[in-house]
Structures are given as structure tokens and as C-alpha cells.
Specification:
It is a single chain. This protein has a six-stranded mixed beta sheet with strand order 7-4-3-2-1-10, with helices on both faces. The longest helix is centred in the middle third of the chain and has 12 residues, at 84-95. It is built from seven helices and ten strands. The protein has 241 residues and is an alpha/beta fold. 24% of the residues lie in helices and 21% in strands. The chain has one domain: Metal-dependent hydrolases (TIM Barrel).
Amino acid sequence: MKLYYDLHLHSCLSPCGSDEMTPGDLAAMCALAGLDVVALTDHNTCGNCAPFCRAAQAHGLLALPGMELCTQEDIHVVCLFPGLEEAGRFQRHVAEHLAPFANDPEIFGRQLYMDEADRVLGEEERMLAGSTDLPLEEVPALVSSFGGFAFPAHIDRSSYSLLGVLGLWDPSLGFPLAELSHRCPPEFTSRPDLAGVRFVTDSDAHYLDQVWGAEHSMEVPERTPQAVLAWLAGREKSETA
């Protein structure tokens, strides 16, 4: 079956995300956009994934909990999980590797925990905007050990990306797939070092008006998180649309 996806979305728990990116409003916007499969991937946390997944389910969407992990090299990696239990265990692990700094809302923005009815439950005091001390080379196996799948985010950008930091794609890192930004130049994927790499394109939306319509799709045998993760890992014989 053909499912339209956006697997890189932020809520108001991300310090750079708009306060309007509440779990409920974000899920509603995704439904209005005609998406089928979505994932919440706040910076270094899965703290709003539960309300987002419940709100998304109420709108008929398949939602995966996730995180945009920042490695010690300042490289962003999208980490997706089949369920909230796995995501929660991964979050607790990442929390042990965050920098020991408090968030400054005046500089980085607020970090709001909310429920699916958009009620504020609290505010994260630790700074989520910085890097962890987790090395990039360990991320694929680490995320897999929690039942998830990881891929480098927005590799066509100059900052916080694998190519922006390292300069070249390194197959030995173990990433079979990478993310492109919505405005990636068509010729970018012709780079010789990207030969054989599969791609997805996500919005990386931090504001409601950055959630775009149904443009990118996957072909999966069933509408489940496991099927989505298998497709991302290349275990399904399908291609990015």
C-alpha cells in the first residue's frame, strides 16, 4: 500500500520549535496535509511523543515516536522507534549523555511538555538544543539495540549535517539511508560518494505552516510501524517516491 509520509517533525518541546507546535495542533495539521505516516522527532527528547501519537491516532494517522539526536560531532540524526516503550528507554539513555546545562528560554526558546488536548504539563529545564557526547559511529547500532532505526538528517545542509561536518559520506558508518531537505537541489544526489545511498525527504517542520502536503510516499505491505521501519532499512523491495 502507498503511504504518504513526513518522518521529521518538531513540537513545542524543541527549543527552536514554535509554541504553536502543540501535539494536538501538529497532528491536526498533518491530517489536513493528507499525510498517512508521521513521526515526532524533537531535539534530544521523546517527551511529547505519547500525546502526539494519541492525537495522530485520533486523526487516523500512523505515528511513530522518535528523536532528532545531536551527536558529539554536532551531527543531527533522526531516530525512529516502533513504540513508546522503546522510545522511552532510548530517551532515558540519551538523557544520561546530555550536556549538564540549564536551558535559557530567552536565548533558545521554551521547551514545553503538553498533553494531546494541548494543555501545558510542564517545562524541560535541561538544555535540549546542544549536542550529546554520543559519537556518530555508535548511533546506528545503539538505536537498533532499542528496536529503532536511524538515519542522518538533512545531509544537504551546511550545518548540523553529516556532510556539512565530515565533508564526505562514509559507508563504514552503517547508514543505508539519508534524509534530504525539502529544498535539496536535484543534482545533489549525483555526488559520487552518495552512490548506493537511499533517500527520504522530510519537512523538519518547526512551525505549523512548514508542514507540507502529501508529496513523498512509501510502498509497504501493511500499515504498521514495523513495516515503515523495515521499508526505511531497505528490507522491503520499494523505492522512495
